[in-house]
Amino acid sequence: MGLPMLSIDIRAIYENTVNLVKVCREAGLDVFGVTKALGGLPAAARAMLSAGAVGIADSRTANLEKLRKSGIGAPLMLMRSPTTKESSRAAAVADMILVSALPGIVEISRALEQMGTSREIQLIPMVEMGDRREGIMPELLNDVVGAVDKLSGVRIRGLAANFACFAGAVPTQEKIRYLEELAKSLEGRSIGSLVLSAGNSSALGLVFEGKWPRLSYPGHLRVGESILLGWDIMTKEPLPGLRQDAFRFYAEVIEVANKPSLPEGPVGLNAFDETAEPVDRGCHLRAVAAVGRQDIGAGSLMPLDPGIEILGMTSDHTVLAVDNAQSSIKVGTQMEFRLDYGGLLGAMTSPYVEKIIKE
Prior knowledge:
This protein has 359 residues and is α/β, with parallel strands linked by helices. The chain has helices at 10-26, 42-50, 61-69, 87-93, 102-115, 141-148, 173-184, 204-208, 225-229, 293-296, 341-349, and strands at residues 5-9, 29-34, 55-58, 76-78, 96-99, 121-125, 154-156, 158-160, 195-197, 219-223, 247-260, 283-289, 301-303, 309-313, 318-321, 334-339, 354-358. It folds into two domains: 10-229, Alanine racemase (TIM Barrel); 247-358, no CATH class. The radius of gyration is 23 Å and the shape is elongated. It starts with a strand and ends with a strand.
């Protein structure tokens, strides 16, 4: 095999989307499938759309361009405000854009003017709801919307909220209701019908528990991680009816040996400026796999063999305790892992990981 390999099961992505769309629709919500962890993989986007997603969302303009060039005609949402230099590209490909700062909105309008197009971009201002990443403070929302009314080529389509990405703020019924009240305060403006982009995968706990509030506006959730990994992102527990096997990661064992568990001699910081805290296991069986941070970024691997434990990872190597492995581990063994969201994101964007798509 050589390179580490990521296996992508498109059927599992389809089935997870089908089940999530069903549950969300029962709560009065549509689903935008999010492809950013997959680098805008067209096969995954098509699976989400055929399973009932009403559109595709991504945080990278280049990914939306890839999706459009692949022939996808569904609505595309850019989830991150474009930089000044990419405003023209974003204006050319995105149908709607989540925005949070007036100068960036002005750049989008200016880009449309320079393009000389009659195309109109739907803007959905992100409101700061406690996660402290991007978002307009609620008390400034009316000023921003008023300024947008005077710009050409853009119009406000609704309001958005984001949770559990930066500070870990949890979505609640009260916060969703507050977003609805903010939308009501904008009624009567020249902004057309409103939609609430009411959250991301973190909101699915409320949906599955039957606690999602009935809203007076059409709403949708932007769902990526829960479709891809099949779990509640707040608890990492499987969601009912969803699969957790859409992705499998494989790496080859390049060394197996009995070694002392503790370092010898003075120690300092490791390659990532961390202080290692090894557990004293005595002399035990360790394996080294050909995978590291260059392959999965800041994410984590989880061995499928419950008897194997990951001891640590450097740029190119992963060290594992294999004393209790249920399978035979030797040089050349292809070890199989699950990934968390960070690991999936890293593996998909790493040039050192081979991607195998199963459709």
